[in-house]
């Protein structure tokens, strides 16, 4: 299995970079942003969307599944 690059909490990423880092599609990242699960910024007048590494890590922590298999 290929090792994935880690998410730097201090970095700013594009939607495409986040999709690659998480191993999901760009449309999944767009849905996470639209639903409010993933915080992102779009400065006025720009089409580009910026996502802080801390936003991704917070999303992963707040959506963590707490079950009996967590400790495995």
Automatic annotation (TrEMBL):
<dbReference type="Pfam" id="PF12728">
    <property type="entry name" value="HTH_17"/>
</dbReference>
<dbReference type="InterPro" id="IPR041657">
    <property type="entry name" value="HTH_17"/>
</dbReference>
<feature type="domain" description="Helix-turn-helix">
    <location>
        <begin position="13"/>
        <end position="62"/>
    </location>
</feature>
<dbReference type="InterPro" id="IPR009061">
    <property type="entry name" value="DNA-bd_dom_put_sf"/>
</dbReference>
<protein>
    <submittedName>
        <fullName>DNA binding domain protein, excisionase family</fullName>
    </submittedName>
</protein>
<dbReference type="InterPro" id="IPR010093">
    <property type="entry name" value="SinI_DNA-bd"/>
</dbReference>
<dbReference type="GO" id="GO:0003677">
    <property type="term" value="F:DNA binding"/>
</dbReference>
